[in-house]
Amino acid sequence: MLAAEIIAIGSELLAPDRTDTNSLWLTEKLNRIGIDVKLKTIVGDDDARLEELIKDAVKRSRVVITTGGLGPTEDDITRKVVARALGLRLLLDEKVLNEIRARFQSFGMTMPERNSRQAMVIDGAEILPNPNGTAPGLYLEHEGCSIALFPGPPREMNPMFENHVQSRLEKLAGDLRFARRVLRVAGMGESAVDEKIAPIYTRYENPQTTILFNSSEIEIHLRAHGRTEADAEALLDDLSLKIEEALGNSVFSFRGETMEEVVGRRLSITGFTVAVAESCTGGLIAQRLTNVPGSSKYFTEGVVTYSNESKTRLLGVDKELIREFGAVSQQVARDMARGVRHRAHTDFGLAVTGIAGPDGGTEDKPVGLVYIALADDAHTEHKRLMLPGDRELIRWRASQAALDMLRRRLI
Amino acid sequence: MLAAEIIAIGSELLAPDRTDTNSLWLTEKLNRIGIDVKLKTIVGDDDARLEELIKDAVKRSRVVITTGGLGPTEDDITRKVVARALGLRLLLDEKVLNEIRARFQSFGMTMPERNSRQAMVIDGAEILPNPNGTAPGLYLEHEGCSIALFPGPPREMNPMFENHVQSRLEKLAGDLRFARRVLRVAGMGESAVDEKIAPIYTRYENPQTTILFNSSEIEIHLRAHGRTEADAEALLDDLSLKIEEALGNSVFSFRGETMEEVVGRRLSITGFTVAVAESCTGGLIAQRLTNVPGSSKYFTEGVVTYSNESKTRLLGVDKELIREFGAVSQQVARDMARGVRHRAHTDFGLAVTGIAGPDGGTEDKPVGLVYIALADDAHTEHKRLMLPGDRELIRWRASQAALDMLRRRLI
Predict the structure, then answer these.
(1) Helix/strand/coil for A128
(2) What would the pLDDT profile of A46-103 be if each residue is shown by its tens digit?
(3) Do A210 and B12 touch (CB under 8 A)?
(4) CA of B123, closest CA in chain A: separation in Å?
(5) Best interface-test mutation with B: which of A36, A45, A298, A301 has the largest number of B CBs within 10 A?
(6) How far apart are CA B264 and CA B278, in angstroms?
(7) Tens of pLDDT, residues B197-246
(8) Domains of chain A
(9) Helix/strand/coil percent split, chain B, to 5
(10) Which chain B residues contact residue A341 at CB under 8 A?
(11) What was the pLDDT predicted at A216?
(12) Number of neighbouring beta carbons within 10 Å of residue B386
């Protein structure tokens, strides 16, 4: 596979709270066309370091992509330093200059003098038009290396890559095409998943399989290559199917969809409706369900009943039940699910009550104890969970388990 | 300032969905003691590239930190390649070997032979003990460069850095100490903020000021240095105060606290309670409020009334009002706030109704139109917002504006 490296340029990217999302996006795109990212670097507005990086990069990698540093200020050093590292001249391109001027005029402004820097072009490079900003990109072939320089803002960089660079790199990459798929699993532990599917996926070198444990979910990442994208997809179809046979309903998503998207689609298709009653998840389930566009078709209402009084008033939970079994109990969870369904006149009522911590746990009912319940017109089911993690994670995992209970009922 | 670079090692870190969080953590730590991170690299399990990187790094940077690649498998190349790059031998350390054996024994296991690799030590390096894993770290001074090798898992790396490396680097860094602060702003646009505070912060070289626009919030990042941390903090205090004077109540957070933490603390202190009625935010406000530990003291209940029928049944919103003005109107928002307050018997009722899109917008009431309202016993206020962005962003911004309305009332 062809080797690429990505260099992100800009001192602001070295702050402790900044991640370089451009390189993730580019990696996805490059992998898909069969190019391997071997190295990623983040460097500040630092002439000497950048020059050394560029010199090394063009020697060791077939493709070098930089993002950032094409702005109009003194700090924007990419054009200048790349030219110097490659031993090429920097020339003013009148056509680019006129385009930048015209762009400013179209907003009723005069181009500030400093923006003329952005019309400087490395000798022999092609211009990559940037319809979403003033800084054009550059593309050049130099001593067997393909070099593309992009501006930093994703809304400028992404279409420039897709429209002007991707197809060139595809030709370089040759015949292999790659495809990726993410399967998501709920309701099983990581080792249980691996035990069931390792005998399957280890038989394949193509697709390659990686299992990731990602807060409340297990993700199975598959990556395949073939002569065409369709070939690669067919290999993914084949292995996905075998994994699904081994894990059954626990695989809830085959294209990376979220749990709430999967549940939402099933509700949409079946025409059923749902209402939600939450205690420890505090609105998280309602929020997740309603984050899906069009959710008003199947989600009518949710209540967050934090106090016992509100459980009784809003859901009709029996006061005696709360006194006898406590607010965190299977009895109350079941009553909440039935209550919200009845009052909202929906097909399903989904409820959660539990202790998310850090306080409020006891020996009998420790932090992490959660009851979930699901009611329809015929019966009510419930489940007792002991969830590990901090408050945020317990809430997330509880919401996931509740949505998963509904998903399984809808199959 | 002393220059450092960080090298993250491991092919899995080059996947399109992995971010290198170790380098962010290390940057924060290094900056605090006055060391600048000049370069960050992510490299796979790739002998040649790693060797070149290490050679360049020790030449150009005073401090080089690597994370990852210290495990027991063939893929774990850090020890071997760093030794080769520095021209140093790799020796088996019997003491370390015995410690790894003992660690396995303490779990009732025999050490697999391959783990003996982890007892290989670069000639002249000091061992950094790792109480949370089998791979010890290494620290060495080589031709004027301080080099630390850490394992990749944060729960192993973080305490190893804090307990064994931080104080050495502090001595190297010399007398300057650094401090950082993040001020968060709500209810003002980015250019309005900059216009008000640029005349202030541009007068200071120390602290340095950066303004970041981060989804719904504007963050003002301040960084100062002084002879002691207290000196640096005093400089931050001084500039923060001036910025606060210029922006007034719009600065809601001085130490990076979230809006819900700030609102929660004010409710806690004052003893007031709140209930929430949400339409387009779908539970997001309740979820944010209840994400704060101890929120059951001031948050009693929330309702997510997606359907018109539920607005009437759960909140007592007048049907005629909905028919006359529509569910997305100031009249309905105000009625929702009054209704939820009245029924929940709380001090405040907070309500949101709007159109989050992508569908449901009309010419009169386009996507992004949101009304927020806040009721107490004496009166009800409301605000009309036109929020830009996609569904998720509109929902987030609406929740932020609503919480901010409550925060301002509590001042």
Answers:
(1) strand
(2) 999 999 999 999 999 999 999 999 988 777 899 999 999 999 999 999 999 999 999 8
(3) yes
(4) 28
(5) A301
(6) 18
(7) 989 999 999 998 888 776 667 889 898 989 888 999 999 999 999 999 99
(8) 2-173 (3.40.980.10), 177-253 (3.30.70.2860), 259-410 (3.90.950.20)
(9) 45, 25, 30
(10) none
(11) 65
(12) 11
Q: Kindly report the CA angle at B393 between B390 and B394, in degrees rounded to 5?
A: 80
Residue found under tokens 């907070």? B350
Pick from A408, A373, A142, A166: which is nearest to A266 by CA? Answer: A408
Whole-angstrom CA distances from B239 to A15, A144, B181, B202, B246 are: 20, 52, 11, 11, 11
Closest CA–CA distance from residue A371 to any residue of chain B (Å): 18
| C-alpha distance from residue A182 to each of A37, A208, A212, A241 (Å) | 20, 12, 10, 13
Residue A134: both structure tokens together: 């003033």
Instruction: Output B395 or B177, whichever has higher pLDDT.
Output: B395
The DSSP 8-state label assigned to residue A162 in this structure reads I
Among B35, B39, B359, B393, the residue to mutate for chain A (most A Cβ within 10 A):
B39
Q: How many CA atoms lie within 13 A of B173 on its CB side?
A: 27
pLDDT at A141: 95
State the residue for tokens 């897709």: A162
% residues pLDDT > 70 (chain B): 99
Q: How confident is the model at residue B287 (pLDDT cuts 50, 70, 90)?
A: very high
Helix (H) or strand (E) segment spanning residue B204: none
